[in-house]
Amino acid sequence: GRSFYSPEGGLYFSASLPLEGNESNIPFITLLAGLSVINALEALTGIKAELKWPNDVYFNSKKLGGILCELVSGSNITAVVGIGINLTLTRDNIPPELRDIMTSLAAESIPVPDKKALITGITECFDEYVYENGELYTVSDSTLEAIRKSSYSIGKRVKYTAGDTVTEGIITNILKTGAAEITLLDGTVREIFCGEITQ
Fold first, then answer.
1. Which end of the chain has fewer CB atoms at under 10 Å, N or C?
2. How far apart are CA 33 and CA 42, in angstroms?
3. What b/e string do you get for 132-146 counting C-beta neighbours within 10 Å, with b at 16 or more?
4. Contacts of 105-108 spanning 24+ positions with Cβ under 8 A
5. Within a 13 Å sphere around the CA of 5, how many CA atoms are in the beta-carbon half?
6. Confidence class of residue 3 from pLDDT cuts 50, 70 and 90?
7. Per-residue confidence at 1, pLDDT binned at 50, 70, 90?
């Protein structure tokens, strides 16, 4: 029921990842995709983007891209990971109501890399995490630390919406399960796996 502004000139693609089905940490795939995007952007442009838990890529406190994951069942389980990154949209062409919340490489005066090179950088990094390192079975300490260091959310006060319930707190950690740890205003600590986070 949500809409997304996806202007011409952005990079939009889906990656299909066949899984064995016995991976212990499939929800972590969204964060691995985000980290792959961040790594590829840094390699090609030099920028240090951030991960807003669970599925947004941020730069200069604005949304640069987003990730959506879906599991598809069949003879095998497949994770389909959709990635969108704003590339060539100029600031003047961003709708006024979105200028305070979204950005693009061009709007930040960052040279836009070749799309094929960016896709290759993202998918090669993603392939390394998922298949070579087996991060969906056991998340390595180094990968978890990279995600925490890249986190836009840790330390920020947020509103967390799950269904009809809205609570406020501070994101204090990202866990090996892919969950975010939130400390509520009354001191209660919760692990959250899904829901809407606003700041």
1. N
2. 14
3. ebebbeebeeebbeb
4. 105/45, 105/47, 105/64, 108/47, 108/59, 108/60
5. 16
6. low
7. low
Sequence-distant (6+) residues with CB within 8 A of 132 are none
Quote the tokens at residue 62: 């604005």
- Tokens describing residue 173: 């950690």
**Is the overall model pTM greater than 0.90, yes or no?**
yes
In this structure, the dihedral spanned by the alpha carbons of residues 84, 64, 29 and 139, taken in order and rounded to 10 degrees, is 150
Query: In the beta sheet, which residues pair with residue 50?
Result: 58
pLDDT digits (tens, 9 = 90+) for 69-101: 999 987 789 999 999 999 999 999 998 999 999
The answer for 195, left when phi > 0, alpha when psi is -120 to 50, beta otherwise, is left
* pLDDT number for residue 38: 98
Do the Cβ atoms of 28 and 140 come closer than 8 Å?
Answer: no
Q: Which of 15-29, 93-107, 160-174 has the lowest mean pLDDT?
A: 160-174
